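Subject: Interface between my chains keeps coming out wrong

I've been trying for a while to get a sensible model of this assembly. When I model each chain on its own everything looks fine, but I need the whole thing in one frame so I can look at the contacts. Pasting all components below, labels as-is. Any help appreciated, I'm running out of ideas.
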Amino acid sequence: MQKLDLKITELENPEYNRIVERAEKRIEEAVLYALVSDQTRNNEIEIPSFPIAIMIIAAANDGFLKRRYALAEAKRAYSLLKQENKSKLTEIAQVFNWKMKPLQAETTMPKTAPADFIMHFTDYLKNTGNLRESKWKLVNRTMLNGEVHVTRDEAARLLSEEVRAHIEKKLELKIGFTLPPMVIKRAETLKQLAQVKRGQIRQEEMPKETTIEAFPPCIRQLYNSAQTGRHISHIGRFALTSFLINSGMPVENVVECFRPASDFSERMTRYQVEHIAGDRGSRTRYIPPRCDTLRTHGVCPGMDEICRRGVRHPLTYYRKKLRLVKAETPATTARA
Amino acid sequence: MNKISTQEFIQQKFAEYYKQNLSSVQPPTSLDKREFAFLLFKERTMLRHKGFKTTEDFRESLLTVVPSDVYYSSAYYEKPEEEMDAKGWIGADLIFDIDADHIPTPCNKEHDTWTCKNCGMSGRGAKPEKCPKCAGQKFDDVSWPCDTCLASAKEETIKLIDVLDKDFGLSTREMNLAFSGHRGYHVHVENETVRTLDSIARKEIVDFMLGLGLEPTLHDFEKGESPKLEDAGWKGRIAKGTYEFLLTVTQEQLERVGLKKKTATQIIKQRERILESWEEKGPWKMLKGVGPDSWKKMIQQAINRQSVKIDTVVTTDVHRLIRLGNTLHGETGFLKTGVSISEIEGFDPFKHAVAFKHDTVKVDVSSAPQFRLGDYAYGPYKNEKVELPTAVSMLLLCKGTAKIVEETVHVQ
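Reply #2:
Try treating it as a single job with all components included. I did that and got this:
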């Protein structure tokens, strides 16, 4: 920005209109399609439009908008990175302080899957947290002496994840100056657009009543344990409580679920349930852990038919099954 | 001469120990960034969110409080004394906990006892879910550290260190190994690169140790160069585990893991040939009627054998409180003792973790199984008064299965 000699206060100047407009387009496209496409070949507009977009989004300060934009930019980065050669990718990795180097043909361990790079497992793990395919699981990789083998395409994908994290972090920064009214106005408009889009994504609103028949196997088992007063692990209690809260069960009824426990303490249980519901403490409502986390801690009792249809979260299962249950019979609801 | 409770006696012994051995209690690295917690003897509550600037402050506090257990955070914080939300997490050491509780052991925990709080019924082994007599669910249970349990835990620890070294490339200098003071071992990894891993990344490390989510086809099973004994990483472990499984497996065991009778017979019959085949390409494709599905079931058995049985919660928790080295364990009176990795084979917790080495104490034991301490075996005991070496008495007292015999205690 400094190099371009662009001043924040000058953004309203008609000269820069095209840059601001391009920034706005970038964001709009990201919100609607999770994409950033090449619109203009004019670098004088394209390059400064990125920091302007960042500024507008930071000003809008909307979580969904931020994540969505970072995702779109990361996708674009991936499509560009895919075309780069090994030495360029190595260079880019260095910018992010990764320990990644091209795998020399002669140092390739015999009899391992083909790979183009080796990278340190910490860099690998920091960038695979959002990737769900089983080929990304560390346990399914070739790793020797702390170095994970990856192909060129995989390296590009991981770098794009780094780009996403990088942008998300940038968007978290507080802006230390006042933005021109025009920018604030645009930010507000985009924020509204994001809210409409998010509404569409979440169109499946949770019903008011909890339907036990639609519980996934893990929650059903936990729920039965609670009802019969059996011991439930810490993470199991957390999963059950957050699931019930998110399924729309009132705090009061969730507390009741735990009453059969021999060491039930109403005060403690209520405190914990309210905490998870976001009525206390940090004010965030917690959601249950995802399937693979439950698997790690031995809470998953094994998958059923619906789980196998690519379900990765207990609540996704619940929404899917709800549709099925509803189609079949009028549902019985949990003790109110 | 005053009457003194068992609990006061234990605390007094702990106080003496810390007074005489204060310089051996080393605070963790980055002392001022850690949260400390003391479990209090009397109140049985945890004094949390403590922070210390200097080793002297910490030691002084240890002498004043004399806690039953001393913990510190694996995490580094900007402000360790604030409430959780305001601490400012900087990073955390990578911690592994191997405890006999999480490992099936040959002793079946026969030395452990439980008593139903409701009807008083009692039994041996791990406590049941429900009391067989009254269906009550609250128990008093006493778990004993035994040679068999600790040998199993040691075996898992050696596996863990091997994986950390060969697969994760961590040097033994970055790993701190310690006997936990009860039924297992802790491994702390302290280095810059692992410090900032979040809980999701650590979960992947846990899954790696457990072999959870492992897909044989992604390790070239059924394609390319199938797993061989000399292969590195999980690929090699699949081969080694399968080999070991097939070495001793019986027809019944094969059927129990889900193989068809005919397939199982085929494998048992050809065992010699299969084992020999490892010298070349392995057995994966040589047997008619033994298809990929059968092999996958056997590979799952291999994974179970090769996996490292760690406590999943400890490693994924980036705010974990963990026992401080060279402090006393309130349930045993043993020390959490550092072990040099090259000397783990010869480490004997019942000798090297003993804190109270002098004198004898007379105690009234309600019940205890036979156990070893140092070079001698003690027990079993049932409702009897015995005079025993201090460390032995302390173990019984800390376990809550013995009381101090009052007339032997002198207090000024």
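Reply #3:
Confirming on my end. Residues 212-328 of chain A form one domain.
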